[in-house]
Amino acid sequence: MTDLLAAPSTLPQERRLVTEVPGPRSRELMGRRNAAVSAGVSTTLPVFVERAGGGVLVDVDGNSFIDLGAGIAVVSVGNAAPAVVEAVQQQVAAFTHTCFMVTPYEGYVAVCEELARLTPGDHEKRSALFNTGAEAVENAVKIARHATGRQAVVAFDHAYHGRTNLTMALTAKNMPYKHRFGPFAPEVYRAPMSYPFRDAPGTTGAEAASRAIAQIEAQVGTANVAAVLIEPIQGEGGFVVPASGFLPALADWCRQAGAVFVADEVQTGFCRTGDWFACEHEGVVPDLIATAKGIAGGMPLGAVTGRAEVMDAVHGGGLGGTYGGNPVACAAALAAIGTMRAQDLAGAARAIGDTMLPRLRALAERTPAIGDVRGRGAMVAVELVRPGTTEPDAELAGRVARACHAAGVVVLTAGTYGNVLRFLPPLVIGQDLLDEALDVLDEAFAAPMPPLTSRPPASPA
Ligand code: PLZ
């Protein structure tokens, strides 16, 4: 196992197109998909994957794509990471499920021990495991409400927290996440985010925090606030990095207000931004932290970790679920975390940022439609606008993304206005592959594909 923690993918790490994109076999599968799968589930890039490893996806037609999406920030350790594969195979052969609430197993406890070690703060911690990011966030809210005896939850403009009823309520964007899916859970309040590209120039993090706090105090009432919930860098909302000082000021306010400060690190966590968790960048110690995605190398696992007194406030049996902390997902998580440690993937994320940000800034210099380049570590984005304004250009974002897809690079879009191109490479991606993907992006901006006549349904990614 120790050897596997450092082992690279055996799949050739190359961009190789052998058919048009999508190829004939993918097109055929897409036909079957459309006849069998709900139209409510969208597809960003209609190529069907056969194998994936390291920084590439290989489709059923034999095309090899450079992966700058990592399954939306999930396979940070690389797809089918050797140590994860081995751990999963061993665990599946031993036992697949017991339900931790019925008869426990060590893997669950070991994941919680890792979470206590890795998350910010040296206070005593407890964790509970679930299956998804939405479930983690939803449970963090349940715990905060129970521990405080209060009900109001504050979320922010541009926030994304999931697709369950409560997490839809917490999510800001209507299309495609909320439209006609209401009514939504009550006692959710929205506060203004710190969004340096769109705030008045020079707005500091402290000023943006005062603006949010004034609104919370006036509209919700300090004594009613159970939790303030925030993504330290917003994900689906467009990789919005708040001005420095914003997060610490909110955390301080929570401490004084007796509210629980909850960091949703589902997308930012597990080395993505160059630290184990994005909160660490400003020394913020959340009371509760929700994690998922990168935690388990592609297996479904979510967690809430936090102060022992908050986590233990809940009555026995108050938290759980049939599959939460499934043994196979826990085995995968321990191998993924081991891989992150052994390969210093936080350092790798910083190196990816050091490659990408200067290249994207150079591209922005010669591309007036790039209004902003932002992000940290391996979570970076460009926001596209009509030149000389801050008016969003979602059309262009879609066209550049499609040009990249056609050239063999998987990129995703994001943003409240759909005008952000975001990059989330696996942290194990090779330097050559990353450079090549950036070359493809340069070319896509030089000649973006013409608009589609009929556009696919609004896609989340
Ligand atoms: N919190 C910060 O980014 C998931 C959503 C994909 P689940 N982001 C990808 C889509 O369109 O459904 C996410 C997140 C943050 C919570 C979640 C929810 O995580 O594992 O998708 O439930």
User: Portion of residues in helices?
Assistant: 25-40%
Q: Give the cofactors and ligands.
A: ligand PLZ
Rg on CA atoms, Å: 21 Å
Poorly predicted ranges (pLDDT <50, ≥5 residues)? 454-461
Query: What's the number of helices?
Result: 13
Overall mean pLDDT stands at 96
CATH class of the largest domain: Alpha Beta
Work out the count of structural domains: 2
Write the layout of secondary structure elements.
Blueprint: H1 24-36, E1 49-53, E2 56-59, E3 64-67, H2 70-73, H3 82-94, H4 106-118, E4 125-130, H5 133-148, E5 152-156, H6 165-170, E6 188-191, H7 205-219, E7 225-230, H8 246-257, E8 260-264, E9 288-291, E10 302-307, H9 308-311, H10 327-342, H11 345-365, E11 370-376, E12 379-384, H12 394-406, E13 409-410, E14 412-414, E15 420-423, H13 431-446
Parallel strand pairs: 3-13, 5-6, 5-7, 7-8, 8-9
Antiparallel strand pairs: 1-2, 2-3, 4-10, 9-10, 11-12, 12-15, 14-15
Helix pairs in contact: 3-10, 4-10, 7-8, 11-13, 12-13
This protein binds ligand PLZ.
